[in-house]
Amino acid sequence: MNTFTFRPPWLLAALALLAVEVAIARYAPPGVLRGFGGDVLVVVLVYALLRTGVAQPPARLALWALLFACAIEGLQGLGMVDLLGLHDQTALHHVLRIALGTTFDLRDLVAYGCGWLVCRALDLPRLTCRPAR
């Protein structure tokens, strides 16, 4: 079985989600959208990136996206950003601090779970309307 495949619609979805995430990070005031919505969408973004090129069942890819987000959150609790020495010396360090996060929060894990639910909902079998006989 081929491990990799290319699905352009998923790449477009990932790029659109990335644009939304950047807009939330840049313009949304602190609150539910920025603190929770962005975390929900990050799992969907990772899922869309996986769907772009990995030939695995959608349920498995959704789980991988969830586990990735939870792993990053766990590393935040271990002070990963400080261990990597990302102290805003450069623009890249600043971007990485934002992308990786600096504070562990259990509510983020709840948001990631909601993101996983969105990923699973994206792949529910499509209902078809059959004409009456």
Describe the protein's architecture and organization.
The protein is mainly α and 133 residues long. 70% of the residues lie in helices and 0% in strands. The chain is built from six helices and no strands. α3 packs antiparallel against α6. The longest helix is centred in the N-terminal third of the chain and has 22 residues, at 32-53. The model has no long low-confidence stretch (mean pLDDT 89). Keywords: Membrane, Transmembrane, Transmembrane helix.
Oligomer: single chain
Q: Counting H and I runs of at least 4 residues, what is the number of helices?
A: 6
Radius of gyration: 17 Å
Sketch the major β-sheet: none
**What is the mean predicted local confidence, pLDDT?**
89
Say how many strands there are: 0
Helix content: 55-70%
